[in-house]
Amino acid sequence: MADFLLELACEEIPARMQAGARAKLEKLFRRELDVAGVKVGELTIWSTPRRLALIARGLPLATEAVSEEAKGPPEGAPDAAIDGFCKKNGVSRDALELRDIKGRMTYFAVIEQPGRAMADVLAAAIPAIIRDFSWPKSMRWGAASVATDSLRWVRPLSGIVALLDGEVVPCAVDGIAAGAATHGHRFHHEGEITIGSADDYAEKLRACHVIVDHEERAAIIREGAAKAAADAGLTLVADEGLVIENAGLTEWPVPLLGRFDEAFLDVPPEVIQLTARVNQKYFVCQRAPAKAGVSGDGAQPHEVPAFAGTRNLDNAFVCTANIDALDPAVVIDGNRKVLAARLSDARFFWEQDQKKTLAEHAKGLERITFHEKLGTVADKVERVAKLARWLCEEGIVTPDASPRAGGDLGRLGAPSSEVPAFAGTREDLAEMAEQAARLCKADLVTEMVGEFPELQGLMGGYYAAKEGLPQEVSDAVRDHYKPVGQGDDVPTAPVTVAVSLADKLDNLLSFFKIDLLPTGSKDPFALRRAGLGYLSLVQRNGLRLNLQSAAQAWGEPFDGIQGLRVADFLFDRLGVQLKDEGVRYDYIQASRAWIEGSDTDGCLDRVEARARALANFLATEDGTNLLAGYKRAANILKKEDWRGVEGEIAQTGEEDPLALVDDPDLAPVIAAKMADRHATTDHLSYTPEPAEKALIDALAVAAPRATEAVEAERFADAMAALATLRAPIDRFFEEVTVNDHEANKRAARLALLARFRDAVHRVADFSRIEG
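Now predict its structure.
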């Protein structure tokens, strides 16, 4: 068995591309050796800014000889077809074999593939790997770059190390021949390094100040940065993405702690962190929590808005040097000066933006197009403001922001103790929600958000607080984009909930109106995220929101079919959300069918609560058996073409009382009374069998209980009422003949099954449940 080392050297592979490059190298290497019939075990793949390296251990010294067969044309085929088959497979016509295939003689070529030395396999594989390697961005270079088929690489390829058990694998790509020589650290080692084998590769590079293992470099940065902060009595603000990025920028990482001017702490902490992170790849540090009113060093804390959180940033940063400096202070000072320049820019933006109010900034939204068919961002703000006010005026979002009582909502809604109350009336809430909505996008035209788009919303909140607007308004401006992803905080403050929900509803209604829906993996307007955000807000706050009413309040003509498409889209998102919790999609459909066409159509909270209760019920033995009984009853009624009360009258020969009613308003009343006759045995012209009477009696109790529980939205109680029907329906099918030869018995028993089916339907549409 043999060990193989491959190193591909170049200049400055971007850190963001290195993980993908490692995966690509492994994929291509396995592909090439699989084609050669070599099974590859575990591979070691490393990357630095200047190289990709692969080590494969336990490769065979040679491949085994194999015999392959290829099916050709049938006997009697044109000579051109036979000769072409021979040429393709590298055999002569005399070497072909004739075999009987389904009664027809057919040519076969038997191709003997002799074993190959592993060095030969690798010599052919390396150029193929390099030429097939794809990068997010690549370049051509040198004189050969005038040809479109010349080699492309992320940066000019400068060297290839290819060693199989210490021996160079002879191959070349675009004039670059494989060898055993590589380079060490750019500043710490001059000249070439000769690698002996895969075994000494990492250690020889380490001796030349190159840590080739990217995970080891990340660990050094992660632990070294935390230690540097701790040594200064601080805590590093964790940032794993920045750890990985710095590991991709350095070959010999050395974390160093420096200080910037404390006056910059007047800038919001998120701005400082983004400036350090995005522009300079620095970590930031925070002080240990201080006692109220006093900072860790006894000085008064810097003034920042209340919602800045517990970040408590210190004027310290940790940079990652790529050299082992003789005087680290020189390196730190250079990084401090660069960071100071960036922070000066940030402070300028911060101060400049505050020279105008948010309302004045908001006027600039008229110059920003939201979508060519939907107008400007200012137009969107008007729609959001109108919708936010409506949500409050209609009592969908209430001042106390607590879940409504009386409903069996499953996990919907937060305990009221967790929800901040609003100190004001419903009208006050509506006014404040409208005000926040009109200002929520204003920071899009500020200098700070222009520099750091990630801060949109957050900076608006800071500016609103600095302007002296109510905290409820500044909080809503800051948080109205939330939740922006799975696991993100879901707003519960009433003003924020109203603005956030209105913003997401406007996105959905707007883009569905112009028929720009998500397709497959494409969702350019983030409508799936808006849908999940809508669901999270409704669920977390226990809201009762009818989508059709919301679409009408939205204020522009909105086709009913489009409204249903929005509802379907959100119900699909609900199905995706609940799938991991074991709530099947057909349970959601069964629950949704109950409210379709009603004044509660589009109320996702009721569908979700009912679906959860249904899932819990059908997971029990009673639920499973009741579902089976329901399906059996439904199949019998369908087979018998049951037509309800009128059908019963026709079959039994009774006089139709509906025919004697002149007043059409009384007909539904009499029809209902005829249906209610079946709630007891008084109407029967025969003595019912014990199992039949037991089902009648059980329905007389269970059906009203289930209906009452559903109306009160106690869905678990409704399922419990249905559970009492399980034993009676099982017994009925075991002991009673439905299709009796006597017409009156047959009609009464079909009517009884119809009552059973309808009682179940009052809770959920069991016909939509699979299985």
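The chain is about 45% helix and 10% strand.
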